[in-house]
């Protein structure tokens, strides 16, 4: 025949082919071609005869969504000749007999998602088009390697960590006693990319917005919680997890995302802040947006939007629990994602806070961000989105009020350094910590810090103005290293800065708290210098994160001044022992054992065990109903790919939460 006929279209999609290697998508467990925008990829087209550029006319067509339109960016033809080009560039890379290799470069703002591909040829009888071939569909993602893409991150190590690393560490506990929890983000595991795209479908997000990283991250911050929109995760801070998985039990994001997508959008139970942040992080990294999980220690969760966390004492200096409404979370996890902010003045691009934990509504929905970290640091909180909320989380003052008999409140102490004490994220390419507090605030007490607080006040963030005379007696509760099940002493250290004798009436309340600072049970109440805390006082009252929050408050008899000290003691749990045996090679069978010896006097029942490892073992779980003193669980697995990775395991039951173990291993080809 005189006109061209198309015999074959090969999208060169194997992991070892040029496309996945050049586009850093070789780790995705997917049979489809996955490429990043604003960077050339290649396809091979076989015709029935050699291609003649002078007379043959053909185009490669890309289509996304149900009603493709050129004006909406959902239908894009790509042409091989210089004279005729569209928004995506095409060129002939090489020709050999009947086969041509074509290079295609998508635009830096094109829609992120799954496209269908067709080849069409102009004939005397009209346009002939290839049949729909699902196997050659193409996923197009954000591209942090391309300077043209708004998510461009000009640091290869940072990209290795914030895009390519499937393993993470999430920090919790308290700032002077940090605990770590390993997490499998699993962004390259089978089905995860489809689940992330499904989240945008479920949000009814218009396709034409899906190339805009600001809109994508804002929609995701609303969709990862189930409030308003049947999003991915149901929050539960109650301690009763009968109808779902306790938040402390999860070891990774894969099971959550596959459950959500597999049920076509039934919210998964249950999450607390680090679970929201971890799953959000998987979403970001999977779509090609650099992302990391950060933890803010002593995070202010303010009920009335000012920069004050109010703690109310009675006239004797004793804590009034019923009237103290604001809560300080021992820690709170959110996400940072990296992007240019063309909607803001220069200097506010880079890392942005997004937070999917449902705390406050923003434009009527539970979502938060993206808020520029630089804007938060400089007090420029007028810029979208939700910067005042993030500013308060790291900058609020803790105000102690004494409630007089007539009900009036008098400010007796202001603590300006307690909230936002430390912000941490995982270090780049190793398991250490990175302290990024200075990204969020200037040093406490510096002139810059004062200027920032004044700036924030112009934008409506109110601060406490009362100047309170410094008490001449200081009190402090020193740090303790306590294992769950120990008796321990809480000591008060007093320092008298005056040259006279001082005596004080001091109250200590020890409250078992959720990490959100919400009390669940009081432990003790006495006025000595030293308190012995016995196991039987707290063991049956401990809630999942085993925190006891001590507040010492009191009144100096001679001066009437109020003194206060706060300390969160985090109990340390026993660990799981994870051991691997067998030859560490791809496709070889290996064994893993998880062991736990119960150190407590009571037995554990209805125990849930979970285990997983990216690239080597899909998530597995086991439920043990019978009460037991020690537990051993053995599983077999066959690694899917080479490289260094971890196996992560958790044990969870009503009496004992957050018991973890992990082991590192390197798989040979």
From TrEMBL:
Its EC number is 2.3.2.13. It comes from the Eukaryota. One of its GO terms (biological process) is blood coagulation, fibrin clot formation. Its cofactor is Ca(2+). The keyword Transmembrane does not apply. Residues 265-358 form the Transglutaminase-like domain. InterPro entries: Ig-like_fold (IPR013783), Ig_E-set (IPR014756), Papain-like_cys_pep_sf (IPR038765), Transglutaminase (IPR050779), Transglutaminase-like (IPR002931), Transglutaminase-like_sf (IPR036985), Transglutaminase_animal (IPR023608), Transglutaminase_C (IPR008958). It comes from Cyprinus carpio. Belongs to the transglutaminase superfamily. Transglutaminase family. The active site is at 273, 332, 355. This is protein-glutamine gamma-glutamyltransferase. GO terms for molecular function: metal ion binding; protein-glutamine gamma-glutamyltransferase activity. Ca(2+) binds at residues 395, 397, 444, 449. It is an enzyme of class 2 (transferase).
